[in-house]
Amino acid sequence: MPSRSLTAAVWTPSGRGAVATIRVRGDLATLSVGIAGIFQTASGRSLSETPQQRICFGQWGCGEVGSGQWAVGSGASAAEDVVVCRTGPDACEIHCHGGDAAVRRILSDLESVGCVVTEWYWQLETERGVYEYEHAYALSQATTLRAAGWIAAQAGRMERAITELSELVANGLREQATARANEMLAWASFGRHLTRPWKVVLAGRPNVGKSSLINALVGFERSIVFDEPGTTRDVVTADTVLDGWAIRLSDTAGQRGSTDELEVAGIARARDALVSANVRLLLIDVSQPPHDDDWQLLAEWEWSDPIVVAHKADLPDVWGEALPTKAIRVSSLQRMGLKELSSAIVTRLVPQLPPEETVIPLTEKQVHELQKHAFGLAGPQTT
Ligand SMILES: Nc1nc2c(ncn2[C@@H]2O[C@H](COP(=O)(O)OP(=O)(O)OP(=O)(O)O)[C@@H](O)[C@H]2O)c(=O)[nH]1
Ligand SMILES: [Mg+2]
Predict the structure, then answer these.
(1) Ligand 1 in reach of 266 Cβ (< 6 A)
(2) Residue 40 above 70 pLDDT?
(3) Considering only CA atoms, which of 300, 302, 327 is closest in space to residue 312?
(4) Would the CB of 312 count as within 6 Å of ligand 1?
């Protein structure tokens, strides 16, 4: 009976691709026996006899349909060319055609001979430990190439940092450990947003041009624009990249006093989006006289130091002196002021970059671990 300790996982991204890689880990002698009726090497040698790191051509699914385990998973599909390589004493890689069907078929065959199908990162965690797994997983989730560069540079750093913190605590240098943990925690938000977009929310009275500005910033029509106040009833999001950072823009329902039930619900959701945003853009329409709702919005969110957008700046400005001094003049229609606005957004989100050697927490778990040290809760045993 094949060993349950065999695991199989796909190591290439899902979806169509030229080649897919399935990695099998565990007792290869057992695997070799299990797949004898399914996998035929071109050399005629069994998998366990092939030397490590040597590429081995073969055919998958060349056994007799209905003979033993082969029939369980594969049905009557035609044989498929694969390349197999033993990458270690207890690991091998199967490279097959990149389509989902080929991958599913091989996984199903492997399952039928006793492999437990798992995720690549669980194989990695079992073999290399939690920090390497977290680092690789974060890298796979990087939102942009720039973010991936920052994550890649973190390889091995957090594990070393946690060991150092534990040593400081063990040596009675708790204050030093706290200070060091706090230094790293200062980059928690930066680290979190290497794998998920920053949230930027636009708010303003109905018809000030929130949807138009979103479309102008992302470069295509994502939000419905209409010359009718109250067009956007709910939060609509659009993803873009500014200066290499992933940004999720939320176009909210226009903020005004309303009794329409649907609109009130939309406005409430818009407020929730505003609360959880990393940066808020408050739009005013400079072609219309200031309205009570404008003043209320500006006063309500002042604490969060929002970016005030003096919108429709292509039209005559009727605000004059009343315009907040820090407002950025933008016209979505004429594509004016968009560069200045984009760089103001980026400056708010990433006012400065971490120094070269900074240890950046990449996961919530790493943040919690550092917090234990920062709050003096971590004992000397913590690793
Ligand atoms: N002149 C001028 N008009 C604009 C500009 N931006 C938007 N508009 C016009 O303003 C009107 C309202 O634009 P929207 O983008 O739908 O405004 P909104 O704030 O999303 O409106 P609601 O969804 O109703 O809250 C449309 O007729 C737009 O064409 C601009 O920069 N200049
Ligand atoms: Mg709208």
Answers:
(1) no
(2) yes
(3) 327
(4) yes
- Give pLDDT tens digits for 62-81: 764 434 443 444 444 678 89
pLDDT in tens, 170-189: 999 999 999 999 999 999 99
Question: Beta strand pairing status for 19-25 and 91-97?
Answer: antiparallel
Domain ranges of the chain: 7-126, 130-187+360-374, 198-349
| Ligand 1, atom nearest to 334 Cα | 31
Whole-number Å distance, alpha carbon 230 to ligand 2 midpoint, is 7
- Separation in Å, CA 271 to CA 113, 266, 350: 54, 9, 24
Task: Quickly count: other Cβ atoms within 10 Å of residue 116's Cβ.
Answer: 16
**237 CA distance to ligand 1 middle (Å):** 17
**Mutate which of 207, 231, 284, 315 for ligand 1 pocket (most atoms within 8 A of beta carbon):** 207
Q: Are β-strands 55-60 and 245-251 bridged in parallel, bridged antiparallel, or unpaired?
A: unpaired
- Residue 284 Cα to ligand 2 middle (Å): 13
CATH of 7-126, one of 3.40.50.720, 2.40.110.10, 3.30.1360.120, 1.10.357.10: 3.30.1360.120
